[in-house]
Design brief:
The protein is α+β, with helices and mostly antiparallel strands. The protein folds into 4 domains: about 260 residues, no CATH class; about 90 residues, no CATH class; about 110 residues, no CATH class; about 120 residues, no CATH class. The chain is built from 19 helices and 11 strands. It has a 5-stranded antiparallel β-sheet. A hairpin with a 4-residue loop joins strand 5 and strand 6. Helix 1 crosses helix 6, helix 4 packs parallel to helix 7 and helix 14 runs antiparallel to helix 16. The longest helix is centred in the N-terminal third of the chain and has 32 residues. It is flat, with a radius of gyration of 32 Å.
Length: about 650
């Protein structure tokens, strides 16, 4: 009889299922409570029973969202159960002495652990559909999506747990590796950005890690992985009205679940390759794969330097320092000491001894040298980060946010206008060029009352035509009135941006619900408004007059504000406060034609229109607006 190679051993498979049946039972009970039993008790009420469509949506959302998180926490548990023998020398030698190939053992144990998760999932989905069927809400397509939401993350996290188990010979080290590696890339990116922020003037970064995809639980936690309907319709039966969700159910961002599931298959194959080369005598060691030990040693040192070193620097030196104002010696000293500590701790774990200085001092010096080089490179701005300002013709959209302390002068502008983009770039360039003086002024407290000096914060954000995003943030920027005549000064550049007619219009028409130029809105219709005027006699407050505005009055005041902004009458000085005369709120609606790229669009009324609110602060220089208000009979006299 010809022989054949087998990758599966039935006896080992059944033995595994029997050994960890309590874990499988606990997992099944968890999902029975989350889905069918909870749905049964909720839908069994005599009141408040949701529609069949919403029943399907709720069940699918629990499966998808809960599936990601449960897979993360239980994946390592089932992997520890399947490969626990690799952390016990007697069990390892016993199994490896069997007439079974390493491939057979790995595949059998892997499938046993996977089956222990997939079987309860299939049972739970079937029972949930029975509960839904009792309310005429069963849906085969929804059941399939529920299985996908449960299975796909399970494949990835269980495979990742299996890889961690074959890499270590200690049972308690596996969950540590699993948890740390699940967030490692995003965490290191965040630490590196924080480190760079200590040195680089104007440092600003978005919260979302660029490399979050390599930290699966971080990526899944930030995604909108949930079930949604493909359409909705507005209904009004006279007594009740609202939005009814219709159409097929879909899982938003489901492509990431497929990507991670595919990565899980690759990781499982990688774990098999590692297992084939793993030495049986490595059982009991922290890192069982010899070539990975230097990675572990230097990785721990680098992460300790970034995390513990920066914490020590913040406590000892950096509490009262801002971006670009730093202690180079203090930062490097703290990080070098933390790196040395991390390196020798890793060496102790690998050697299982405290006597590691003689064997580890060379590597420790290498870690220190690398950290010093990195800090020096950032402090010298060898990357050109501080000096870089995008050329206006490279920019698709730009955003500038200025807030001057003490006098209320501020603007928050999003624009695609090349002229305004050029003004934003000029202000950015002036602030970056003024780094040396701003660092000298960082600890000073200028007198902001006499109008000769002002201080504020500036944030700029560019989206380039290439898709790249550039952000800079300058805190406590100090600028002087005497430098207004110098075209390249911070004061001149910020004033030019503040008083630009387009900027003044966007600033004057403070908007809720939209960030783009209101002149570009389609079919803008005013529905009314509100007008208020504070009355003062010298420095004594005499009350407030309030008026409701008709749609025609709201439109007339809107046009007047636009004319004042275009003529430069809505500007002013950044160095002093200009008292307001009155406040106006204008209510309107428009047809929203923007592409949200899958994100949730603002809610519309039954006619498909989106509401918007303009909030205008009227100053004494806005003559057109004041004249329009007087013509409507609104009281505008003030003393």
């Amino acid at each position: 009889m010809p022989s054949r190679t087998s990758f599966f051993n039935r006896t080992v498979f059944l033995s595994d299922l029997k050994r960890w049946w309590p874990l499988t039972a606990g997992y099944a009970l968890l999902w029975l409570l989350l889905l069918p039993l909870t749905r049964l008790t909720e839908y069994g009420r005599d009141y408040g029973v949701p529609s069949a469509w919403n029943m399907k949506l709720d069940s699918l959302n629990i499966a998808v969202v809960g599936g990601c998180w449960s897979a993360f926490f239980t994946g390592i548990l089932f992997a520890m159960a399947a490969f626990s023998y690799l952390t016990n020398a007697r069990a390892t030698n016993g199994l490896h002495a069997l007439p079974a190939r390493r491939e057979t053992l790995f595949v059998t144990h892997y499938l046993a652990g996977l089956t222990s998760q997939l079987a309860p999932q299939a049972l739970v989905v079937a029972l949930t559909q029975l509960v839904l069927a009792s309310h005429r809400a069963a849906d085969a397509r929804a059941a399939g999506l529920m299985l996908l939401g449960l299975i796909l993350p399970t494949v990835f996290f269980y495979s990742f747990g299996a890889l961690c188990m074959v890499f270590t010979g200690q049972i308690l080290a596996a969950p540590v590796f699993y948890g740390v590696l699940s967030i490692l890339v995003a965490g290191v990116e965040a630490l590196v950005k924080t480190f760079a922020g200590n040195f680089l003037y104007g440092w600003a970064e978005t919260d979302m890690p660029a490399l979050a995809a390599f930290s699966p639980i971080v990526k899944l936690a930030t995604l909108d992985v949930r079930a949604v309907g493909t359409a909705n319709e507005y209904f009004d039966d006279g007594a009740v009205s609202g939005v009814r969700m219709t159409g097929d159910l879909v899982i938003r961002d489901v492509r990431w679940l497929w990507i991670y599931a595919a990565a899980g298959v690759v990781i499982a194959a990688l774990a098999l390759l590692v297992y084939r080369r793993r030495h049986s005598e490595a059982t009991g060691t922290t890192v069982a794969v010899y070539w990975a030990r230097p990675v572990f040693r230097y990785g721990v040192a680098f992460c300790a330097a970034l995390a513990l070193g920066q914490l020590a620097y913040e406590l000892l030196f950096g509490q009262y320092r801002s971006s670009g104002d730093y202690s180079l010696v203090g930062s490097l000293a703290c990080m070098a000491l933390a790196g040395l500590l991390g390196y020798f701790v890793a060496e102790m774990l690998l050697k299982k001894s405290f006597r590691v200085w003689r064997t580890g001092w060379r590597g420790a010096l290498g870690v220190t040298a690398a950290l010093v080089a990195l800090g020096a490179a950032l402090s010298l701005d060898l990357t050109g980060y501080e000096r870089y300002v995008p050329e206006p013709d490279e920019v698709l959209t730009a955003h500038a946010d200025l807030h001057v302390y003490g006098n209320g002068r501020a603007f928050d502008v999003n624009t695609e206008d090349p002229d305004v983009i050029r003004l934003i770039a000029d202000a950015h360039r002036a602030a970056a060029r003024d780094k040396a003086r701003q660092q000298q002024l960082a600890d000073s407290e200028p007198d902001l009352e006499d109008g000769s000096v002002a201080q504020g914060r500036l944030f700029v954000f560019y989206t380039l035509k290439s898709g790249r995003v550039v952000t800079r943030r300058y805190s406590d920027v100090t600028f002087f009135r005497e430098e207004l005549a110098a075209g390249d000064s911070v004061a001149a550049a910020l004033t030019a941006l503040y008083n630009d007619p387009d900027t003044a219009l966007l600033r004057s028409l403070g908007r809720w619900g939209i960030s783009k130029d209101p002149r570009a809105l389609t079919d803008l219709r005013f529905t009314g408004g509100y007008y208020s005027q504070s009355l003062w006699e010298k420095d004594e407050y005499r009350g407030e007059r309030e008026y409701d505005l008709t749609p025609a009055q709201a439109k007339a005041l809107y046009d007047a504000v636009c004319r004042d902004a275009a003529a430069g009458r809505a500007g002013g000085s950044l160095f002093e406060r200009e008292p307001s005369v009155s406040g106006i709120e204008l209510y309107a609606s428009y047809v929203d034609t923007r592409d949200y790229g899958g994100s949730t669009a603002p809610r519309t009324d039954p006619g498909g229109r989106t509401e918007i609110q303009f909030v205008v602060t009227v100053t004494q220089g806005m003559s057109e607006t004041l004249a329009a208000a007087r013509g409507m009979g609104l009281a505008m006299d003030f003393r």
